[in-house]
């Protein structure tokens, strides 16, 4: 019963928050690049420093981490192509 409580109170909200931050509808590519980079760094730091096994936290944060990596690559590609410039 305690394992279910830990799942519902800690792990599920952590996973949902990670995915929600990764899915924020940020239009400017520079802002998206910065937020996704910060998300990636904070997630990796949490995986390394939270108590418990890193494998547990990797499973919890994997969806948000994967989304953030994909959006980070897309924002970098958009900036590289010149699409991230503000309208003149």
Radius of gyration: 15 Å
Overall helicity: over 70%
Which structural class fits the helix and strand makeup? Answer: mainly alpha
Oligomer: single chain
Query: SSE order in H/E notation?
Result: HHH
Spans of at least 5 consecutive residues with low confidence:
none
Please state roughly what percent of the residues sit in beta strands, choosing from under 5%, 5-15%, 15-25%, 25-35%, 35-45% or over 45%: under 5%
Q: What does the largest sheet look like? A: none
Total number of strands: 0
SS element count, helices: 3
What is the average of the pLDDT values?
90
Q: In one word, what is the shape?
A: elongated
Instruction: Quote the distance from N terminus to C terminus.
Output: 59 Å
Give an overview of the whole structure.
This protein is mostly helical. Helices cover 80% and strands 0% of the residues. It has 3 helices and no strands. It has helices spanning 2-22, 29-49, 54-81. Helix 1 packs parallel to helix 3 and helix 2 (29-49) packs antiparallel against helix 3 (54-81). The radius of gyration is 15 Å and the shape is elongated.
What topology does this entry show?
Layout: H1 2-22, H2 29-49, H3 54-81
Summarize this structure briefly.
The chain has 88 residues and is mainly α. Helices cover 80% and strands 0% of the residues.
């Amino acid at each position: 019963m305690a394992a279910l409580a830990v799942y519902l109170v800690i792990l599920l909200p952590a996973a949902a928050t990670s995915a929600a931050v990764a899915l924020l509808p940020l239009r400017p590519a520079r802002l998206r690049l910065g937020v996704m980079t910060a998300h990636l760094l904070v997630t990796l730091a949490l995986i390394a420093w939270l108590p418990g096994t890193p494998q547990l936290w990797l499973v919890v944060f994997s969806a948000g981490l994967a989304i953030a990596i994909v959006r980070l690559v897309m924002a970098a590609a958009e900036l590289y192509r010149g699409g991230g410039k503000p309208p003149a």
